[in-house]
Predict the structure.
Amino acid sequence: MSHFFTKALLFFILTLSLQAKDGLSQEHLLSVSPEVSAQEVSAESTVEIVFDLPITEKSVHKHTITLKSENKHSKDKEVRGSTTLKDEKTLLFTPSEALESGTYKVKVQELKLQDFSDKHTNRFQKYSHKMCSYFYDDVKKCSLYRYASSVKTKHIKYTFRVDDNQPKVTSIALNKSNIQLNENNQTSISVSATYDDNSTIDITDDTEWIINNSSIVSIDKGTITPLSEGTTTLQAKYNNLTSTQISITVYKEINGYKLPPEPDETLNNSTLLGIDVNNNGVRDDVEIYVIKRFAKDPEFPKTKTALAMQYAWSAQKILENPTMESSKFEDYALSCETYWINKKTKDMSLLDDIKYSQKHSVFGDDEIKEKIYNTRIRVEQMFLYNAALSGNILTQEEDTLDKCQVNIDELGE
């Protein structure tokens, strides 16, 4: 109904067009950059046209802004580049390469702007606003009102000059090579530009950022804000130069323990050893489980996490090589835990000793086992290991601190 009504009015009503003034003096034009007849302009300059009203996106195309060289050896040669909307009121032309010294001619085609102010400038706009309000809660969505509110600019023409002596940017660089970021924190990064005279300046605020996965982090003038757990890459872009790509990892943390990223379940379970991005010998899904479970233990969070991680590490070694030789890793994990429990229970009765051990032991915990041996091939490896041990005489390792991967005496628990 409303769509038909809009078309009908557009067909039958004579439009009162809003005329803009010619050239650089026209209404709604705020600024041009480089300025008219500007001298000493940098070779890395971009052309920027700013209006006080939003630019209709459909009126912007590849040749809305054209840049031509007026140098003797390349008279009226068009400069390659891209025309984009920098923001809703700013049109930007970025040359594909640094400009040579000399004079350049800028030409901007007609554009359509949108004037949605309450000051209706003519009868048609006032009437269309009234009619559209009957059919739309937001009259800006009504094509009749949008048409009546459009302002057409005139062509813009002017020249500027690139200075022979203006230094050129030869490279840009980030001040960090990689970033590890807690999901609850922000961090900052800066960008420097090096010129052909070896001078450098900070260009952080003028940099364009290239983020491979914008759901992981956002960045504004060098301030990086984490959005979700994961890893992405970041590059800085200034004019036509880009920096080296760096890696950003956003991680979760529990009581000072850094968790690896949650692995893709299908990919993690498609191989025997799964995913271990931090390369610490414990599969990532198992490490996440251990930290989430034990790092918040009310009595011994540090010690139990260390013991559980060593047990998980020994189980991973057994998965990799289910032989009698691998039993030493499991023995070390058990000996470490026994050493700790013996210190805690040395003055207890036998019954209290047994109760204490049952309460605090993490070695061979059934829930950890289920997490480690969670696929058919992993269970089969465990059976192969048990078969390798069958019939052998096993000796008990001495329960000493040197069997521990972490010095649990220094954990303060």
Q: What stands out?
A: Residues 1-21 have pLDDT under 50 and may be disordered.
